[in-house]
Specification:
Layout (H helix, E strand, L loop, with lengths): L3 H4 L11 E10 L2 E11 L4 E5 L6 H9 L6 E6 L2 E2 L5 H7 L1 E3 L12 H9 L10 H4 L3 H13 L15 H14 L4 E5 L7 H13 L5 E5 L3 H7 L2 E6 L2 E6 L1 H6 L1 H8 L5
């Protein structure tokens, strides 16, 4: 296998990266789920993290966002070491994310869910929704997130009346309401129909060019069509880090994950 320095895109200075990982490692007892992963993501870049089930993708996301603590290695956000920060402080520094499993308040409306997210990084974060509904900056940011995700027309509808596709869109809206600099999308098209996947792809493509996006996605047609660069994990290790075309042509990647149709 290539050395890590050969796999990682060394043309990007870690000090100017939106996100940089250095030998990130996570052990669960005797199991090494993430094995010395290094990665450099430029500001405004779209990056996919792919790999078969059990490759360590979601564990890696959780290490980046602070949901899990590192066994070893470092995580840098715009040149600052955030390795020891808890998850909420990483949000404050500019990381937003979605989850594989929809994580919403079903009894509240679409608008109320986004307002709660929007206030999460503001000094009034402990105030109830009713007190911030007319708070200018927070309200405007929430409404912009709904507009950006195509949900403005359903903002008064309770979550439990939304389709699954609309709920996945709302998860993106919640993350955008945090005003992230780096947006982490964990399988944004999971469980969606073909039409809904197309809508999700269009949504991700329409996000601002200066927003750095890192996504995990099992729908390879969707993932490879959305990103500038792809990192492939296998048994917790990086086996490829290159353009979508080069990764899809990589024999080791084809063998472990993509299959003959990408050969």
């Amino acid at each position: 296998m290539e050395s890590m320095e050969q796999i990682v895109d060394t043309s990007i200075d870690p000090a100017t990266c939106a996100l940089a990982l250095a030998d990130v490692t996570k052990d669960f007892g005797a199991l090494r789920a993430v094995n010395r992963v290094s990665m450099r993501v430029a500001p405004g870049e779209r990056r996919a993290v792919i790999g078969p089930n059990g490759a360590g993708k979601t564990t890696l996301f959780n290490l980046i966002t602070g949901e899990l603590s590192l066994t070893d290695g470092k995580v840098y956000l715009f040149g600052k070491n955030i390795s020891s920060l808890p998850a909420h402080q990483r949000v404050d520094r500019g990381i937003g994310r979605t989850f594989q499993i929809t994580n919403l308040f079903p009894a509240l409306s679409v608008e109320e869910n986004v307002l709660l997210a929007a206030q999460g990084v503001k000094p009034v974060k402990l105030n109830p929704v009713g007190r911030i509904r007319h708070s200018g900056q927070i309200h405007d940011r929430a409404m912009q997130a709904l507009e950006d995700t195509g949900l403005s027309e359903v903002r008064g509808i309770p979550i439990n009346e939304l389709s699954h596709g609309e709920q996945r869109q709302l998860e993106v809206a919640l993350a955008l309401a945090l005003e992230p600099k780096v947006l982490m999308l964990d399988e944004p098209a999971a469980g969606l129909s073909t039409a809904e996947r197309t809508m999700m792809a269009d949504l991700i493509s329409s996000l601002p060019d200066d927003l750095t996006i890192v996504l995990i996605e099992h729908d390879m047609d969707l993932a490879l069509g959305l990103v500038d660069r792809v990192t492939c994990l296998h048994y917790g290790k990086v086996i490829a880090d290159d353009t979508p075309r080069c990764v899809s042509d990589n024999g080791e990647v084809q063998e472990c994950y993509l299959g003959a149709r990408y050969a």
